[in-house]
Amino acid sequence: MGPLTLGVAASRHCDGRLEQSLRLGTGTVRMGTTGKPIAPGRVRLRLLATSDVHAHLLAWDYYADRPAPGRGLARLATLAARARRGADLSLLVDNGDFLQGSPLGDAAALGAALDQGRNPIVAAMNAMGYDAAALGNHEFSHGLDRLMAAAAQAKFPILSANILTTRGAAPEADRTLFPATALIARSVAGRSLTVGLIGLTPPQTLAWEANHIDRPLFARSIVEAASAQARSLRARGADIVVALCHAGIRWNETDPVDNEAAAVAGLAGIDAVVAGHSHRIFPDPDLELRPGFDPKRGRIHGRPVVAPGFFGSHLGVIDLVLAPDDRGWKITGRRARLIPVARRNADGRLAALAPEDTDLRAIALPAHDATRTWAGQTIGASPHRMSTHFALVAPCEAVRLVARAKALAVRAALAGTLHADLPILAASAPYRAGGRGGVDNYSILPRGPLSLRNLADIYPFPNSIVALRLTGAEVIRWLERAAGLFQRISPGAQDVPLIDPSFPSFNFDSIEGLSYRFALDQPALYDHRGQPTGSGQGRLRDVRLNGQPLDPAQPLILATNTYRLSGAGGFAADLTDRALPLHREFSRDALRHYIARLGQLPPPLPPNWGFMPMPGTSVVIESAARAVEFLDQVQGLAIRPIGPGKDGFHRFRLTLG
């Protein structure tokens, strides 16, 4: 079959109309969802999905300035071209968070990686022939003006049914910032086939990105918007309805409430779901079966669901075998799967499974080269190396560097105000400390010149600094929330896991300006979501300010960021009324100014936090194999390597006696 004309009608309650036509070729091999030939008269619709690419166009780690085989849209382009073969019809969709999340995305937003005003991420997606993309929360991270400028270049509709300029009495009366849905009509086997797409964005985005949104916006829940739009699409002639849901899969009650993809899969009128946001994968054979969830076959409530990882690590593929009937088409077969761009060898190293698409690489190279030049600008120097390999078990100099920069910025902003004489503390967390990001997900700052690349490494997000007026008791509760990272350890236990794997490292705030210790034998006051557990007296011990016990009534200033101000991470529900009025500076800019002002960083500070002694007790942590290079930076802790772990990680024993 030759090229087909694709008609796209975008539905939105906002000014202007969006109409476009794309031309895509289709294959002629007709196989079923198991790879077997399908019955005569039936067709296969193949949905190809990406999510959370975060501006990773090429297989490159800009923080380490070296190749990274397991990522990149250019590798996904090769996989997508292969996957189109064998389908009667195919659609390529993205599930959001494509504009921000790498130095290339930052450089593009600042203009350093634009080619005659052309956004390289959107240009690459145009070249790949995307049919639609959902709006993710991080699309807002560079501000609405930059988002709108990038979106205007897209040759595909960008969708969000629940981010609104006006909230109506019901979803049908909402006016949305971007189109809510798109209808894609194709002709196949002499009949018309219409696919409806719904874009869904976390409603929490308006809080998370409040500092970057300069006009009134509103949000509706994902489930409410999806249900209404599914009905609308059916009424307008959609044979198949697919939800592009920028939300994770809430596997159990302890998962974050913004992970609504499973609930969307259970809605009437929804045929398939593309999930994302949480950077997990689905199907995932390592997950256990539970009612309504089949993680091996990629089904939730009987509907096929894919969550294709992050940074371009996987291509999601949903196959729907369709048979014509009196009402249009009915689904007779379903299959969901993931195709990875790389696999780990026995030594833990990633090996690419697909080459980079040459055309996409050519599009990306100018921005890639410009980003490397931009990120390589020298801003200062360090007399010692720093890394985050042990940032979850010991004070980390890179994390403390960020905190000190925040504190200095707040002190300068409060000079001459009523709050100028209050003690200033600063909270910071390790953003790259292993976990889901894998064995290469650690920050290393070299001895010698420091560049913008190094700053982006330890602070990858465009958050702004916020100053909160809190009491000593509230600051202790802040640290108790962070203490949920640790598993409860029984005295005398040997080589038990210390870190809760469901607790993301970016929620492990440490506080500069205090000293304190954790009692690991006590239950945590908060779980990994920040919800109170209702048990115990807490884990914080010996909390001191300037060497003296911290008075719970002591008024303090805590320098943090806009992400925490919104309540993200479970540290507090709403702290807006506790924020002091000051000009908000980007955290990374404050860090850059701080290092430039010093010129040469000072030697590492003595440790300011640790663990209460537990004689005869040892725990196990995981880090990269090269963490042994930084054991000398872990002052006062007995840590020893004990051998390889899973997925390329290595195990280390920490003796708590």
Uncertain runs are 1-35
Number of helices: 13
CATH architecture of the largest domain: 4-Layer Sandwich
Gyration radius over CA: 25 Å
What best-fitting shape do the alpha-carbon axes yield? globular
Helical proportion? 10-25%
How many structural domains can be distinguished in the coordinates? Answer: 2
Measure the end-to-end span. 72 Å
What summary fits the major beta sheet? Answer: 10 strands, mixed
What is the C-level CATH assignment of the largest domain? Alpha Beta
Q: What's the β-strand tally?
A: 39
The CATH superfamily of the largest domain turns out to be: Metallo-dependent phosphatases
SS-based structural class?
Answer: alpha+beta
Can you walk me through this structure?
With 657 residues, the protein is of the alpha+beta class. The protein folds into two domains: 9-16 and 39-370, Metallo-dependent phosphatases (Purple Acid Phosphatase, chain A, domain 2, 4-Layer Sandwich); 380-490 and 503-605, 5'-nucleotidase,  domain 2. Helices cover 20% and strands 28% of the residues. A hairpin with a 2-residue loop joins strand 18 and strand 19. The protein is globular and about 80 Å long.
Write the layout of secondary structure elements.
Elements: E1 4-11, E2 19-24, E3 43-50, E4 60-61, E5 66-67, H1 73-84, E6 89-94, H2 103-109, H3 120-128, E7 132-134, H4 144-151, E8 158-159, E9 163-166, E10 175-176, E11 181-188, E12 191-200, H5 205-208, E13 218-219, H6 222-235, E14 240-245, H7 261-265, E15 272-274, E16 281-282, E17 293-294, E18 299-300, E19 303-308, E20 314-325, E21 328-340, E22 342-344, E23 350-352, H8 358-375, E24 378-382, E25 386-387, H9 397-414, E26 424-428, E27 444-445, E28 448-451, H10 452-458, E29 465-471, H11 472-482, E30 496-497, E31 510-512, E32 514-518, E33 540-545, E34 548-549, E35 555-561, H12 562-565, H13 587-598, E36 609-611, E37 618-623, E38 638-644, E39 650-655
Parallel strand pairs: 3-6, 6-7, 7-8, 12-14, 14-15, 15-19, 26-35, 30-37, 32-36
Antiparallel strand pairs: 1-2, 1-11, 3-20, 4-5, 9-10, 9-13, 11-12, 16-19, 17-18, 18-19, 20-21, 22-23, 24-28, 25-27, 26-31, 29-35, 32-33, 33-34, 37-39, 38-39
Helix pairs in contact: 2-8, 3-8, 9-13
